[in-house]
Amino acid sequence: MFERPQGGERAILVHLELSSKSEEEQLDEFRELATSAGVKPVKTITGSRVAPHPRYFAGTGKAEEIRDAVTQNEADLVLFNHTLSPVQERNLEKLFECQVLDRTGLILDIFAQRARTHEGKLQVELAQLRHLSTRLVRGWTHLERQKGGIGLRGPGETQLETDRRLIGARIRQLNKKLDKVRSQREQGKRARKRAEVPTVSLVGYTNAGKSTLFNRLADADVLVENKLFATLDPTLRRVELPEGQSMILADTVGFIRHLPHDLVDAFRSTLEETRDADLLLHVVDASDEQREANTQQVNEVLRQINADKQPTLMVYNKIDRMKHTEPRVERDDEGRPCRVLISALNGNGSDMLLAAINERLYSEIHRYNFEIPPDMGRLHARIYELGHVLQEASTEQGSWLMQVEFHTTEWNILNKEEITQYIVNREDESFLAVAGEAT
Question: What's the per-residue H, E or C state across the chain?
Answer without folding.
Answer: CCCCCCCCCEEEEEEEEECCHHHCCCHHHHHHHHHHCCCEEEEEEEEEECCCECCCECCHHHHHHHHHHHHHHCCCEEEECCCCCHHHHHHHHHHHCCEEECHHHHHHHHHHHHCCCHHHHHHHHHHHHHHHCCCCCCCCHHHHHHCCCCCCCCCCCCHHHHHHHHHHHHHHHHHHHHHHHHHHHHHHHHHHHHCCCCEEEEEEECCCCHHHHHHHHHCCCCCCCCCCCCCCCCEEEEEECHHHCEEEEEECCCECCCCCHHHHHHCHHHHHHHHCCCEEEEEEECCCCCHHHHHHHHHHHHHHCCCCCCCEEEEEECHHHCCCCCCEEEECCCCCEEEEECCCCCCCCHHHHHHHHHHHHHCCEEEEEEEECCCCHHHHHHHHHHCEEEEEEECCCCCEEEEEEEEHHHHHHCCHHHHHHHEECCCCHHHHHHHHHHC
